[in-house]
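It is worth pausing here to work through a concrete case rather than discussing structure prediction in the abstract. The textbook approach is simple: state the sequence, then state the predicted structure, then interpret. We follow exactly that order.
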Amino acid sequence: MAEVWITIVCLAENVDFWRRLVMGDILKYSEFQKVSYVNRLVIYHLPVVERSNEIVSINKLIAAELVQWSVQKRTLLLERSLIKVLLALPGQPILIDIDVLFNPAYKVDVMKLLTSAYKQKRFSLVWPGTYADGKLIYSEEGYPDYRVYEIKDYDIMYVI
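Step two, the predicted structure:
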């Protein structure tokens, strides 16, 4: 079998884009607008006004899928339910209201769940928590649904 070599030539204006092909990138929105192609989950810090017609609240959609299963089975079927909801949505939606995914009873890594689902259906989302020092934070310390995600550990692009 013959070996195939692929060479990527970076022109001066595209070097910055190719640099972004690392896990856990954080970009300012003005920089993000210059990127022509993204092949990873994009998470926005603030709602994206110019694409507001693509924004979809998914809490109720996922809850409707999960309610048909026993509490014990929901953890196992969470990813399947998320993907089913995503595949039913047109285009490349921007998700909001994803709080149902953070239910502590599910005991899942929500960021891993989202990046896995992205492989089945392209989407982006507005982060429902806060950002600090390269970390995405959901909820507040002391609450059972409190989670901290190091952006560098996930194949995502966080747009501030």
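Step three, interpretation. Confidence is low (pLDDT under 50) at residues 1-15. Residues 10 and 18 are 7 Å apart (CA to CA).
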